[in-house]
Design a protein that fits this description.
Elements lengths: L6 E4 L5 E4 L2 E2 L7 H12 L5 E2 H8 L5 H19 L5 E4 L2 E4 L4 E3 H16 L6 H14 L11 H27 L3 H14 L4 H13 L3 H19 L5 H11 L1
Parallel strand pairs: 1-7
Antiparallel strand pairs: 1-2, 2-3, 4-6, 5-6
């Protein structure tokens, strides 16, 4: 039985925190502590160098000043969280205490790794893939700390984005091999929501619709692909995409 943790932190699609079932309210005074927490999470949340955090939050300050500011901000963050031990310090490194904190991005990565590992086994169980991939879609409500422009956050967002797309594509291909076209379609559609310029996903989605006898829907996907490539990349569909389109009208 999984023990409920007092703190829940949400970073995918929106940022919010809940303590013992009650939302934690923010104010202008909590901006810097929240920024510290976001930087900590962007760096992985575990054993992050205090120097790295100080340099990120106070890049213009000298060493002593940045260190003092970090100590004050950490005190305020602990007070905001209401759990002193939620933030741990050891060997000049900071960690978020996983015994007290549930973080959606941690759960998301665990789920990504779980599904990825399942797909790489000799005979993946369709029931397990269906259950675990559904959890994956449920957890991900959007990009990591969407709208934030800190370099550390952007790097984390891009890494998760790329990994999620790879796993979505692998799930889709798994269902294709079993002839489960409607299941495959769901994951290609999700991939295109994340990356509307990825032509390979349009191709797979067109094939799914075609195999389901939905040729009109497949042509709609083709035209969306054509529009996206033209608008964003000034490109036309590839020969492979055009070959799939021809199978829809022959």
């Amino acid at each position: 039985m999984q023990v409920s943790k007092p703190l829940r932190i949400y970073t995918l699609g929106r940022f919010s925190m809940v303590r013992n079932g009650e939302p934690i309210k923010f104010s202008a005074k909590t901006k810097k502590p929240i920024t510290l927490l976001k930087a900590l999470l962007a760096a992985g949340g575990r054993e992050v160098s205090l120097l790295q955090l100080a340099d990120t939050l106070w890049p213009e300050a000298d060493g002593d000043s940045a260190h003092n500011s970090l100590n004050v901000t950490l005190y305020r963050l602990r007070k905001l969280l209401g759990e002193h031990d939620a933030i741990q310090l050891m060997d000049s490194k900071m960690s978020l205490n996983s015994q007290l904190c549930w973080v959606d991005v941690w759960e998301f990565e665990r789920q990504l790794n779980s599904v990825d590992a399942m797909l790489k086994t000799a005979q993946p169980s369709p029931e397990s893939i269906r259950a675990e991939s559904s959890k994956l879609l449920e957890i991900c409500q959007g990009g990591f700390l969407k709208g934030e422009t800190c370099a550390m956050i952007i790097a984390m967002r891009k890494r998760l984005h790329g990994k999620f797309l790879r796993v979505l594509d692998a799930i889709g291909q798994f269902w294709e091999k079993l002839g489960e076209w409607s299941h495959a379609r769901q994951f290609y559609q999700k991939g295109l929501e994340l990356e509307p310029m990825l032509e390979a996903l349009y191709q797979r989605l067109m094939i799914c619709h075609r195999e389901m006898g939905e040729r009109a829907e497949a042509m709609v996907v083709y035209h969306l692909c054509q529009e996206s490539l033209s608008t964003h990349l000034n490109l036309t569909p590839s020969l492979q995409t055009e070959a799939i389109r021809r199978t829809l009208i022959d």
